[in-house]
């Protein structure tokens, strides 16, 4: 009992150490669990929401629409649980200018169900549910009416990637009808689209660099009133995915098995079958047109023949009359009256030649008959010409049918293709990667501080330990005093850390997340396993340091422990050998220098602890600076053009004419822009990618005209980059990179994610879904977006060659056509505001699909979630620095109580004692800051390497102000600690402190 009482008394006396260890553990556990818990809560709530609303696992789109046969084929795919055929239509309406929307049919099979936020779901024809973004922008409310206009079929079908491309099939397929929705609408509800969880009312509503929407809004309508037998898309649910988290790799593998099955068999067969359906429908139309034309021509010919027969009968009657009259006159002159009567009663027989001659004479003599014959001949001639022309037209149609109907393309996509889903996932993944890295530094600092504190605690009880061991107490029993002390401090600090980690930090992160995304059903959850492991990790680290301190002391004999520890022998320091400096130092300066370097363990612990905390602050500020400069670097430095305009292929010429006529462009470059994919060509090739890299990246494929390859450098800064270490990269000289016909130039953002470098082989997919293996000639500096630049010649070589994969869908060299330059990169005159306004005005033009102002993108680029997490990390790092400095300062004072007492006996005033002690701590702090500043830059580089986000490359940037802030903050913490230490120095009693230990 006496042993226990003494142990408790010792614990109470060491309450400062107890608080220090508990606070360090609290901060470490909070960082370890907090960011993880916040991301996990967001992941789980979002996954539950997706399951409840039936968000599709796979979506199939087709350039020619989907038929019932396509839907039936998808239902037969192994692993598919549900298939839902969906119809949609793009419409326009007037809302402070021309706006577009997608009329989306609400599925009846439980897939992609909108989440009702206000009002009720639409049930009748003409009723719709809209998103909160539309309510906010339009000022309308439930009960408001709206009239929309369907977009023209020509604009719908000009782009082969348009999901409403089925509209164009109406010209060649009379059996399938494109979807059609009511145009007079009434708003009955406000819903959340599960495919896009972006918060329109949040502070990040202007963050547009990830926007992938092709229309401004989405309207949800019931099946009632929707017509059309052709489907825009098919959405699928995969068996077993509901039991898995949509953000886990196991989910992706399950879905990939189904998409591979669709790509492997169903896709090719149904593409060919659908095209054959279109060909058959076209041939049927031609056959029907020929039959109808033949019928019309036959009717016309019958009419002409009837008229000609009537005409011939009339002429023949005149011929007969004239022949009879001639015969009667001849009989009168040469015979008697009886003979004349007989001759008159009988018409003479004329041979065919005589009759034809008389017919021509009679027709020629009669203007009416002549005109009638000419009309008949003209009608016959016109009919013959129409027959020949129609036959020629039909033959031409037959010959052109195969080339006029393009190869049908299927696009099989998973949830990653949804812009809202991929943005949320990438945000949470990036924050979680930070949460996995920072606790390591906290753990190292915690172990160092615990070792320092517990080593001093054990050393203070040196004689008491010797007494207990001499009395027969086992070393384990004696050591348990300190092990239990450290364990209790860890458990209390860890418990409080769990509260902060599973409640405080996640609540803060989720507030920020809810400003960016709408996540219904969000709740905080506790993870017993992860929380227990988090505490156990720090318990093991701190106990290991405590055991080490106890072993160092208890390996001595009781007799040695009962004697005071011999003072550390004096020794020369390096500074003493630099005579010009040493000789000019004062006495107290020399004492301070000797004290700093003589106690090497204290030097290492203090400098290391301060350096670690400073590095954390610099690291957090470095990430903030890096993110803050992304938009400016990309849109003002790398992109030298001011405007990018994209149009449909059919509107490319009109778009260029429109831009040229406005007179705002000072220089421009016509290019072709397609959305595609870049995939590592082969995992077995050492140059093709690195282990652990993601396999595919969405890209923007930019083809440049052969005659203007040199002009690309005037629109985009071309700088070759090479991979560096610790987040660095070597950047070549501006202008040293040229686009040629030997390979493609890949953006650094995509190359970094996939481990691609110059000379690698990659597989490119163009806008038509054709794949080909390409050589990477260089990697270009690029931070936002994943651009791949290719020359016109190399593009044709890749996608028109017989070696390209999926050759059924690729053009043959004989059928290849010149590329359509559907985009323009331009430099504009005027201010940033005028350039932004001009881009917005261009989007209202019917020939323009998208107009992007670099000035607007540079100003509007934000990454709010990362900024909030960085602020949290910097705050926690500052707290850790304060605790570390407090622990080191108190340990320093406790080690030197006799020294301080001696100084007081020698006549030092309290202020002089303060200065004597604090000067050493400030020098050590400055040394730690000097070491921590570059260390923070290196740690920041390593952390940014872990932030492999889609279409983003973090080029580490640390502004001088950030170094200043980190240094000033650490020094301020050191000064603050002095305010707590100075009263302790004042309370030192020289008499009791200088008593002999014996």
Would you mind describing this structure in some detail?
By secondary structure, the protein is an alpha+beta fold. Helices cover 56% and strands 14% of the residues. The chain has a six-stranded mixed beta barrel with strand order 14-15-21-18-20-19. It has a four-stranded antiparallel sheet with strand order 2-11-1-12, with helices on one face. Strands 8-3-4-10 form a four-stranded mixed sheet, with no helix packed on it. A hairpin with a 5-residue loop joins strand 16 and strand 17 (729-731). The longest helix has 86 residues, at 249-334.
Helix/strand layout:
Elements: H1 2-13, H2 15-53, E1 58-66, H3 68-75, E2 80-86, E3 88-94, E4 98-105, E5 115-119, E6 127-131, H4 132-138, E7 145-147, E8 149-150, H5 153-157, E9 184-192, E10 217-221, E11 231-238, H6 249-334, H7 337-345, H8 352-365, H9 367-404, E12 410-414, H10 419-460, H11 462-470, H12 475-514, H13 528-554, H14 558-562, H15 579-582, H16 587-598, H17 600-638, E13 643-646, H18 652-662, E14 665-680, E15 696-704, H19 712-715, E16 721-723, E17 729-731, E18 744-747, H20 748-754, E19 761-765, E20 771-780, E21 787-791, H21 792-799, E22 823-828, H22 832-843, E23 850-853, H23 854-860, H24 864-895, H25 897-905, H26 910-946, H27 960-986, H28 990-993
Helix pairs in contact: 2-10, 2-12, 2-13, 2-24, 3-6, 6-7, 6-8, 6-9, 8-9, 10-13, 10-17, 10-24, 12-13, 12-24, 16-26, 17-23, 17-24, 17-26, 17-27, 24-27, 26-27
């Amino acid at each position: 009992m006496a042993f226990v009482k003494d142990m408790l008394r010792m614990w109470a006396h060491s309450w400062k150490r107890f608080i220090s260890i508990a606070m360090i553990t609290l901060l470490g556990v909070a960082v370890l669990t907090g960011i993880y818990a916040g991301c996990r809560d967001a992941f789980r709530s979002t996954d539950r929401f997706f399951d409840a609303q039936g968000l599709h696992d796979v979506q199939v789109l087709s350039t020619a629409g989907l038929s019932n046969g396509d839907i039936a084929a998808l239902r037969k795919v192994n692993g598919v649980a549900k298939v839902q055929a969906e119809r949609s239509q793009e419409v326009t309406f007037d809302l402070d200018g021309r706006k577009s929307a997608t009329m989306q049919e609400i599925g009846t099979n439980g897939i992609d169900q909108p989440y009702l936020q206000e009002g009720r779901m639409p049930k009748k024809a003409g009723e719709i549910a809209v998103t909160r973004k539309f309510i906010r922008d339009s000022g309308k409310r439930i009960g408001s009416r709206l009239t929309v206009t369907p977009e023209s079929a020509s604009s719908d079908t000009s782009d082969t990637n348009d999901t409403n491309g089925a509209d164009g099939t109406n010209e060649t397929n009379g059996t399938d009808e494109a979807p059609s929705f009511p145009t007079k609408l009434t708003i009955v509800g406000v819903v959340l689209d599960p495919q896009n969880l972006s918060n329109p009312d949040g502070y990040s509503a202007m963050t547009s660099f990830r926007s992938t929407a092709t229309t401004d809004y989405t309207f949800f309508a019931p099946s009632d009133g929707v017509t059309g037998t052709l489907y825009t898309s098919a959405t699928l649910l995969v068996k077993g995915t509901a039991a898995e988290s949509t953000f886990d790799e196991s989910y992706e593998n399950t879905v990939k098995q189904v998409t591979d099955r669709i790509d492997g068999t169903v896709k090719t067969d149904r593409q060919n079958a659908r095209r054959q359906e279109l060909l058959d429908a076209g041939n049927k139309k031609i056959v029907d047109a020929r039959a109808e034309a033949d019928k019309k021509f036959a009717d016309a010919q019958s009419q002409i023949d009837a008229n000609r027969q009537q005409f011939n009968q009339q002429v023949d009657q005149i011929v007969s009359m004239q022949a009879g009259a001639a015969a009667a006159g001849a009989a009168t002159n040469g015979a008697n009256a009886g003979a004349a009567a007989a001759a008159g009663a009988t018409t003479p027989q004329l041979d065919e030649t005589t009759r034809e001659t008389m017919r021509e004479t009679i027709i020629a003599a009669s203007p009416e008959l002549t005109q009638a014959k000419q009309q008949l001949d003209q009608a016959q001639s016109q009919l013959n010409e129409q027959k020949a022309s129609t036959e020629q037209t039909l033959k031409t149609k037959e010959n052109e049918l195969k080339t006029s109907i393009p190869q049908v393309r299927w696009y099989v996509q998973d949830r990653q293709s949804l812009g809202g889903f991929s943005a949320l996932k990438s945000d949470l993944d990036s924050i979680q990667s930070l949460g996995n890295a920072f606790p390591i530094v906290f753990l190292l600092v915690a172990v160092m501080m615990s070792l320092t504190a517990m080593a001093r605690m054990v050393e203070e009880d040196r004689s008491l330990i010797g007494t207990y061991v001499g009395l027969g107490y086992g070393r384990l029993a004696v050591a348990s005093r300190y092990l239990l002390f450290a364990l209790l401090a860890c458990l209390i600090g860890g418990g409080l850390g769990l509260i902060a980690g599973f409640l405080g930090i996640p609540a803060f992160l989720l507030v920020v997340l809810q400003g960016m995304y709408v996540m219904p059903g969000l709740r905080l959850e506790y993870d017993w396993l992860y929380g227990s492991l988090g505490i156990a990790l720090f318990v093991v680290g701190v106990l290991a340091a405590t055991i080490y301190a106890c072993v160092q002391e208890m390996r001595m004999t009781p007799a040695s422990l009962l004697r005071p520890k011999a003072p550390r022998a004096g020794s020369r320091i390096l500074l003493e050998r630099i005579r010009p400096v040493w000789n000019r130092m004062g006495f107290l300066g020399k004492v301070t220098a000797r004290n700093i370097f003589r106690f090497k363990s204290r030097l290492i612990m203090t400098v290391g602890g301060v350096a670690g905390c400073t590095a954390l602050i610099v690291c957090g500020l470095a990430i903030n600076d890096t993110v803050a400069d992304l938009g400016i670097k990309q849109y003002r430095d790398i992109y030298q053009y001011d405007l990018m305009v994209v149009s449909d292929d059919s509107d490319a010429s009109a778009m260029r004419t429109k831009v040229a006529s406005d007179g705002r462009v000072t220089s421009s470059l016509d290019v072709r822009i397609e959305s595609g994919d870049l995939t590592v060509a082969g995992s077995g090739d050492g140059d093709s990618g690195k282990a652990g890299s993601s396999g595919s990246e969405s890209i923007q494929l930019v083809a440049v005209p052969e005659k203007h390859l040199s002009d690309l450098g005037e629109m985009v800064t071309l700088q070759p980059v090479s991979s560096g270490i610790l987040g660095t990269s070597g950047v070549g000289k501006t202008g040293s990179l040229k686009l040629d016909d030997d390979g493609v130039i890949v953006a650094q953002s995509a190359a970094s994610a996939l481990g691609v470098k110059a000379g690698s082989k990659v597989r490119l997919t163009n806008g038509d879904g054709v794949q080909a293996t390409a050589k990477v000639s260089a990697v270009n500096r690029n931070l936002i977006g994943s651009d791949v630049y290719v020359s016109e010649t190399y593009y044709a070589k890749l996608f028109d060659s017989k070696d390209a994969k999926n050759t059924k869908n690729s053009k043959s060299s004989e059928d290849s056509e010149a590329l359509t330059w559907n985009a323009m990169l331009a430099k504009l005159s005027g201010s940033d505001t005028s350039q932004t306004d001009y881009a917005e005005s261009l989007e209202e033009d019917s020939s323009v699909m998208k107009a992007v102002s670099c000035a607007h993108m540079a100003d509007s680029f934000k990454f709010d979630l990362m900024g909030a997490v960085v602020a949290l990390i910097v705050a926690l790092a500052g707290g850790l620095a304060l605790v570390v400095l407090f622990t080191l300062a108190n340990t320093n004072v406790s080690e030197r109580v006799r020294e301080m007492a001696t100084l007081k006996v020698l006549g030092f005033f309290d202020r002089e004692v303060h200065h004597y002690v604090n000067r050493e701590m400030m020098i050590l702090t400055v040394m730690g800051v000097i070491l921590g500043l570059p260390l923070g830059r290196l740690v920041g580089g390593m952390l940014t390497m872990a932030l492999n986000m889609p279409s983003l490359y973090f080029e580490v940037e640390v502004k001088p102000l950030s170094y200043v802030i980190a240094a000033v903050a650490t020094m301020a913490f050191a000064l603050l600690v002095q305010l707590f230490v100075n009263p302790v120095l004042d309370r030192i009693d020289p008499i009791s402190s200088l008593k002999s230990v014996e």
